[in-house]
Structure formats: structure tokens, C-alpha cells
Amino acid sequence: MKILVCAFVVGLLSLASSQDKTSSPKVEVYSKLPGEYGKVNTLICHVTDFHPPEIKIELLRNRQAIPGAMQTDLAFEASWHYHLTKHVPFTPQPGDTFSCNVTHVGISKIYTWEPDM
Ligand SMILES: *[C@@H]1O[C@H](CO)[C@@H](O)[C@H](O)[C@H]1NC(C)=O
Known about the structure:
Elements: H1 2-18, E1 26-31, E2 41-50, E3 55-61, E4 64-65, E5 70-71, E6 75-76, E7 82-90, E8 98-104, E9 107-112
Antiparallel strand pairs: 1-2, 2-7, 3-4, 3-8, 5-7, 6-7, 8-9
2-acetamido-2-deoxy-beta-D-glucopyranose binds next to β3, β8 and β9.
């Protein structure tokens, strides 16, 4: 019971202290393995430091959403900034562009994967 009450108070505090602060997400797009054409890999979009917690992340191949992407649970740090990771299996092919579309407080930005190949 004590723990429950504590969690509730902490929740309230976080609501109260964070209401009017907006911070834009920092986004990193990378792959699990070095990029290699025709080789199965995992595309990862790591989004940190954003507030409020509502966010939409899409992984794109040639500007089309890649279905079946998985998202981690929303997590937060001591500063009440949130972070999330979204990932999907993919196989890069010559000419393909992979990117991450992050929409936060109504603003969408595209971050493109730099394959280093
Ligand atoms: C990015 O996501 C936003 C919100 O869903 C959408 O309106 C926009 O068309 C998307 N951009 C691309 C290139 O898919």
C-alpha cells in the first residue's frame, strides 16, 4: 500500500513539474550490423530526451512505412525526459533509402540512415 501511494505521489509530481516543458527528441538511426547489401540486418531508431511523452515513430523504406516494426516500452529518466527505441528487420538493397519518421508535438522530421557502405 505504501508503495502504491508513493508511486501515485511521484506520478502527480511528474505531471505537475513537467506540464509546460517541451523538449524536442534527439534521434539516432543505426543498424545492428554494419550495412551490407543483401544481408539481413536490423534497423534501429533510438529516440531520446523528448517531452511530452506522446510520440510517433515510423521506420521507412523509400519513404514508405515498414510494417512489423517493434517498439520498446516508453521509459523515462530522472529528468522526466522520455526515450523509446523502434526496430525492424531489414535487408538493404542498392538504391534503397531507410529512414525514421519521428512526429512529436505535431512536427514530423525524417532522419536518414547512413549505411557507411
Ligand atoms: C511522417 O509521419 C507523419 C505523421 O504520421 C505523416 O503525416 C507523414 O506523412 C510521414 N512522412 C513520411 C515521409 O512518411
